[in-house]
Design goal:
The chain is mainly α and 190 residues long. It has nine helices and no strands. α3 runs antiparallel to α6 and α6 crosses α7.
Length: 190
């Protein structure tokens, strides 16, 4: 490029560079970000702050449920159950944290990315009542919505087929839905 003019060779070079990237490649930053979000959340609970999942700790995450009760509506029964049975709540939190780590690793590596995207949608949607009920800041609600929307995109777009381990699975096995049932056939493994 000289004097502000674009040469034909510059345009051709740019087109060739763009051809090597597909729309799936553009999802890499989104896949890595959502994957890291889940991995970090799970590791923080399990490794950096295990008191958060310990029912006998004052830092136990489910202790926050008390602030949710005044406006819990249809979730009142579940909240009371967890508050009355902290060991069940602790088991739930550890299981959820392990799921966060698994989904995070799968998204980061691009392994079973559509299934991991589905798991991400379910987990992010499950957190939405906490954002709505609790004494949380407005940012958490917005982050939760973005996490749900991003996860839906990752689930539908097979983001691991470019720069991910799913590329090998797709070449070897083709497209694989988790079931042939009408709704579930849209959810694919990779």
């Amino acid at each position: 490029m000289s004097g502000g003019k674009v040469s034909t060779s510059d345009v051709t070079e740019q087109r060739e560079a763009t051809k090597s990237l597909t729309p799936l490649a553009y999802l890499l930053p989104l896949r890595l970000t959502v994957g890291w979000d889940w991995l970090d959340a799970g590791l923080r609970k399990l490794m950096l702050a295990p008191a958060k999942v310990n029912p006998s700790s004052s830092s136990f995450v489910l202790n926050k449920f008390v602030s949710f009760l005044p406006h819990a509506g249809p979730f009142t029964f579940l909240l009371k159950y967890f508050l009355e049975n902290p060991s069940v709540g602790g088991t739930f939190l550890v299981t959820y944290a392990v799921a966060e780590v698994i989904v995070g690793v799968f998204l980061i590596t691009g392994l079973l990315s559509r299934l991991a995207g589905f798991g991400s949608v379910v987990m992010a949607a499950a957190l939405m009542p906490a954002y709505w009920l609790g004494s949380t800041c407005e940012d958490e609600w917005q982050i939760g919505i973005l996490l749900v929307a991003s996860s839906v995109v990752l689930m539908l777009m097979a983001s691991g087929r470019k720069f991910g381990l799913d590329s090998y699975l797709f070449v070897k096995f083709g497209d694989r839905p988790i079931s042939s049932l009408p709704v579930l056939r849209w959810i694919k493994f990779w």
